[in-house]
Predict the 3D structure of the following.
Amino acid sequence: MRRALPILAVVAALAAGCGGSGSKTQQNLTLVVNGSFSKTPYVAETIANGAQLALLELPLGKSFTVGDTTYNVKVERSDNAGSPVKAVANVRRAVADDAIAILDEGTGVDASWRVANEAHIPIGIVYQGGVGLVDPARRGNVFRIAPTDHGLAFRLAEYLVPKGLKVALLHDDSGYGGQGAQALDKAFASNPEAVATRMTLPSSATDLAPQLLAARRAGATAVLVWAQGPVIAKALIAARSAGWNVPFYTPSAGADPVVRQSLADHPDWVDGLTFASGRLTAEEGPNPFYAFSSKYRTAFGVEEVGVKTRRGEEVVQPPEYAMYAYDFVRLLIAAIQAAGGVDDRAKLLAAMNEVTIQGANGDERAFNEKNHEGVIDDDVYFARFRDMTYEPVKDDPLSATLPTIAQTGQ
Amino acid sequence: MKRALLVAAFVSCVAPGSAVGARLVLFPAPLTQLTPAPPFPPPDTVLPNVFRPPIRSNELIAVGTDGEGRVVSVDATQRLVLAKVGDYRLSVPAPAEDVEAGPGSESSPGLRRGAILWAGFSGGRKVLSAKASLEPGATALLLPLRLRVSEGSVRLENATTATASTFIANGDPVQLAEILDTLRTDPQGRKLGQSTYVKVTGRVRDARMRVTAPLEVTGRIGDREVSLVLGDGRPTVRTILARGRPSLELTVEPVPPASLLARRTRPSWTEALRASLTLARVRQYNALLANPDTLGPVDARYQYRSAAAPTPVPPAPTEQDAGLAAWMLALIIAGSLAAAGGLAVLWANS
């Protein structure tokens, strides 16, 4: 209740600003979603949908009023096909079109942030957690609401090292995998004895049996795969089909539906897969997240994973990345309110550091001068698959406090 | 401010000036805040704190002074230790210009105008350490020791004195002795809490009481060792003679009054009240940066050091400036060579 008051104040301020009847001018704003719609559509679409949902919830339906101006906001999908070059080109076009903000998976941000920064356009990364992507001192226009690679890697090390495992650290050859490998190197630097081997997995390989065999021969008693969903699936298949029942650990990508889809014929091979991700629920429980999920499904339908439990229940995917995009857009609108409109873009950018909203999971979401991360490292938890759905593990202090999110038959 | 109002509250609730039979009144415990600051008051936009008590706070305040004793820099390192499992979101009011994680911190602090921020999850024990550069002007007003350095002397002044609006009554001496016994073992008054009642008889009168947090000052002024207490029945101002305009290296700690150690079986209301309010003042200066857990233990140490006054940093030359300078330099060199060449021709023709 204590924390509800300021949130109510922010909501009230938003509502007051949004309900104006005496506005004189109309202005169209474009929010660009820069994602790999053609290559990894699940992630890109869920980001776009999350942004769309935040706009649908505005009291005037995709519009809000500040002072005398009514702003009509639309979401524009910009496909980068996973290419940093295309991602930067998309940002250039967004700047040319005077976009109000860019929601981004993270691809190409190392180059695109400058382009956007010159126009004081905020970039909200809501998927990739690369360590260097966000830097409030140098990249003042880049924000992130997604677990950081640093947080995931250190929490994985913190979780695995005390178990006395010899971990094979595998990553794929994508940018995502490379950034993860860097984070893992730092996280395990003080515990070299816990690392059995390090290896790069070729994303294009159809069979990863040689790499998994090498990991086994290196004496690994656990495998940590930092890779995109399809590669994680191939690694699991390679290990299990060889009869190697070694425990598997992954970052958030382990929960990508494609992993379960790829293993639909062998659901027991998924059992025990443990992934690290950002918690979906705050301390007050799962109700705020369920409320968000319900709104999301009403607007965009149920996101079915495409597999069933042993009892025949359809498995559905909680809208995790949609939640991050949704929260970023709501922070952006709160910042526009605080800045008194969009005319002064530098002021709007500064306001991003000062506003707070109640996030979809019930907790506050905010940035500040020193920290542009909306998901803090402490909030990384671990979940383990069983019967195609996952639940928080019990042998980690944070995870043990978290409820299991319903994932079937809805 | 809230606590200051509390002092006024119990004045009104006992109807001062009235002479009635025995009744209970709220005794001003050390958790009473006599002035709105210290700690630094919260900014307007601060969010409520979320945590599971207790939180322990330790602070080291490094104060840099110029040749006249004026405060030119303040770096505060606050270490908060959370002891329970659960989420936390903390806001520590401070006029911070910059902040970074301090030694041993298990998380990184955030910064907004007027507050240092923390958020995360504690698995049972979590150390949050922040090292913040504070705005010297705003902070100097809240420091416990004021310095004036002159040629041949240094004046040390205890700046913690405050006047509390309170009341005088005939309190039950047995209860008052129990309160003082409790404060001897727990000078911060955490066991007493904020609601300790005492039976009083007779007239209750408004009163104003000046209290000072005793300061233990140790260190060096020039080549002279210093170890003294300002306040606690001793002078609150001392002038130390020194050679020239000396440099300083002083550690200052707010300490409980020595009188608290002397056990009395039947203390008067005034004795107990003075001890309690003095401890309240000590507690205030043990938390320049607030402990988000207002009932949690606090401890602060202030280190005063002579430091050079900050000099304005000249702006770094831009690439364009650098190019211009090189171009100018080349022109000058070329001009010099041409002039030298001309002189040589003149000399050859002369």
User: Anything to note?
Assistant: The interface with chain A takes residues 45, 47-50, 85-87, 89, 99-100, 107-113, 117, 119-121, 123-124 of chain B (CB under 8 Å). The first helix of chain B runs from residue 2 to 13.
